[in-house]
Amino acid sequence: MLALRRRSPLRLSPEPDGPALALGRAHEASGPARRVFAALAAGRLSGPVIWAQGPQTEGRLDPEGLLAFFDPGRLVVARCRGGVDALWTAEEALRSGAAPLVVVEPPAPPALTPVRRLNLAAEVGAEKAGGGGPLCLILTPEGGSAAAVETRWRVEPLPGWASAPPSAGGGPARWRLTLLRDKAGPPGVWEMGERQGAAPAFSRAA
Prior knowledge:
Elements: E1 10-11, E2 20-21, E3 26-30, H1 34-43, E4 49-53, H2 63-66, E5 75-79, H3 83-96, E6 101-105, H4 112-129, E7 135-139, E8 151-157, E9 174-182, E10 188-195, E11 198-204
Parallel strand pairs: 3-7, 3-8, 4-5, 4-6, 6-7
Antiparallel strand pairs: 1-2, 8-9, 9-10, 10-11
Helix pairs in contact: 3-4
């Protein structure tokens, strides 16, 4: 079994106290804006993004919506017949070390053994790639609670956000990122706002 190495985390914002994710591990995000979390991570990495979708996934990915975070030309989507297939696809992608980010959307939160397999596959992939990654994100339905994840997040739009452009009377989108569980530290809450032509802005919530 591979020994877990200490690696520099992936920082989702330039602020030193901003949210961060341990590379070579599996993390979970739930909530209505969980895909925003994955897109944010993709924007902080380079290289292909493999996105494995299980059945009953809520809607197709919108390239226009991803442009604010990363180039959708980097995206490889695998539409799988079942949750087991989606987890297997993610595991194989992680083990290959070919992609710095692997996202999986199973129809239900995975149990202990599948998540352990994802973590081990990410470790193998990191050894092959010779770097800190890859990173695995598990996007689960509302109230999801996947076992054995490194961190667990809930991501939701802030009240009053507007999807219309400013010219149409709208404003920049805003979200709340709540860290519910972290094996390496305390929980926390951040607010994130979209900025035209720049990386999203973060602030630590009280």
